[in-house]
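Extended Data, panel c. Modelled sequence:
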Amino acid sequence: MFRLIKQCTVAKDAWEILKTAHEGTTKAKSAKIQLLNTKFENLKLLEDESIQDYHLNILDIANSFESIGEKTYKEKLVRKILRSLPKRFDMKVTTIEEAQYISSMKVDELIGSLQNFEITVNNKTDKKGKGIAFTTSIDSYETQGNHEDDEDMLESSALLGRQFKKIFK
């Protein structure tokens, strides 16, 4: 940095050189802003991504805006987060939009609320998928030459299917 401003005699000239070196020219700055806007608008929470990871991605882009001198408003970040959540968050988004003023909501409050919801939903889905319906174990060398065992297995499967059909009726 010193080499850039070494020849300057006025502080304002040094400031302008350093500003251009860090932010770039107006064309470069405009291109960066357009790139960041596109990146910001295309950002969505993926199905396998956590709220915390998504929050960090949003903050990275917001900090990039700040570093080139563009202001990002908290309301814009809150609305973007709510808009880019997957379907599993629809119930929570509706609740937040109806119960609170989005314009005065802080990003940290929203993230905390969404993390709480994410933990609750993940906990419920873990409990649902733990049952085992039917298990079997047959050694392949025992059944290769035994046609009668195959017929018995088919008959047992058919009987089991009929019993399930009766239960569901």
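The radius of gyration is 30 Å. This feature is highlighted in the accompanying rendering.
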